Task: structure prediction
Amino acid sequence: MSKAEVLWQVVGGAASGGLVVRSGASLTTQQADLRLANGAIVRQLEAKSGRLRYELVRGTGPSTGWVSLCLHGRELLKRRSAVQESSKDAGTEVLAPLQKDIVASAPAYSMSPTPPWAPQGSPGYTSYKGQCPTAEDSARKRAT
Result:
């Protein structure tokens, strides 16, 4: 059965070694020995009163626990996306839609033997002496 899933990325806690993780929603519950590292990706299990119960998808930190979404008006976690999960083991399946978005937005490249920015009459690649062709160079070459 498929269910909607929400992912979050840790954007706070870099200066303090990560976010404090607790065993319960209350700020008085036991604190975990490890912190949830900046950049980690977590799956939302539950949210209430500005707190998030999570399961670690990628990164370093406790595999599950409760963290604060904000502290002193600063965002500690940023919502990444809502994706569909098709199985219990979704470590790579969860991130696959994010990767597809990146690939879909990447520019297409030609595999022709002579690049579009090569000087006219050039039989192939040539040395540009440290200068890379610009987008305008490529467009101008394609137009001719």
Observations:
- The domain at 3-105 is CATH 2.30.30.40 (SH3 type barrels.).
- The longest helix spans residues 91-105.
